[in-house]
Amino acid sequence: MLKTRSWHALLAMNIVLLIALAWTGTRSQPAVPVADVIRARQIELVNERGDMRAELSLGEGGGGQLRLRSGQGEIRVKFGAADDGAILLMLDHTTEPGVRLAAERSGPSLKLTTSGKSDRIVSP
C-alpha cells in the first residue's frame, strides 16, 4: 500500500512538472529589446557573406552620407549632406555619374550624363 501511494505521488509530481514545463515553453518569448537611439560614426549593412551593401557614415566635411552598393559591391547611389546643401548622385553600370541632383547654396541643379554625349544641366 505504501508503494502504491509513493508511486501515485511520484506520478502526480511528474504530471505537475510536465504541465509546468509545457506552460513555460508555450508562452511567447519576450521581445528583443529595441534601443530608442543608436549612436555611431558609421553603420554598415552587410549581406550573408559579410560584404557591405549599404553604408551610413560621416562625410569629409562632417556631414552625413549614405552609399548604396550593387550585388557586386559597386557603389550605385551616394547621398550626402554638407554645410551648403545636399547632393544625390546615381552611378551607371560603369560606376560613372549618370544623375547628379543638387540643392546647394548656389541653387538647385540637375545634371544628366551619358557616355559619348554632352551633359544636360537643368537649373532655374
What does this 3D model show about the protein?
The protein is α+β, with helices and mostly antiparallel strands. The protein has a domain at 42-122: Alpha-Beta Complex (Outer Surface Protein A, domain 3). Helices cover 20% and strands 40% of the residues. It has one helix spanning 2-26; strands spanning 42-46, 52-58, 64-69, 75-82, 85-91, 97-104, 107-112, 120-122. It has an 8-stranded antiparallel β-sheet, with no helix packed on it. The radius of gyration is 30 Å and the shape is elongated. 1% of the residues are buried.
Short description:
The chain is of the alpha+beta class and 124 residues long. The protein has one helix at residues 2-26, and strands at residues 42-46, 52-58, 64-69, 75-82, 85-91, 97-104, 107-112, 120-122.
Detail the topology: elements first, then pairings.
Blueprint: H1 2-26, E1 42-46, E2 52-58, E3 64-69, E4 75-82, E5 85-91, E6 97-104, E7 107-112, E8 120-122
Antiparallel strand pairs: 1-2, 2-3, 3-4, 4-5, 5-6, 6-7, 7-8
Strand order of the largest sheet: 1-2-3-4-5-6-7-8
Helix count, per DSSP? Answer: 1
Query: β content, as a range?
Result: 35-45%
- If classified by CATH, what would the architecture of the domain at 42-122 be? Alpha-Beta Complex
Radius of gyration, whole Å: 30 Å
CATH level 1 name of the domain at 42-122? Alpha Beta
Oligomeric form of this entry?
Answer: single chain
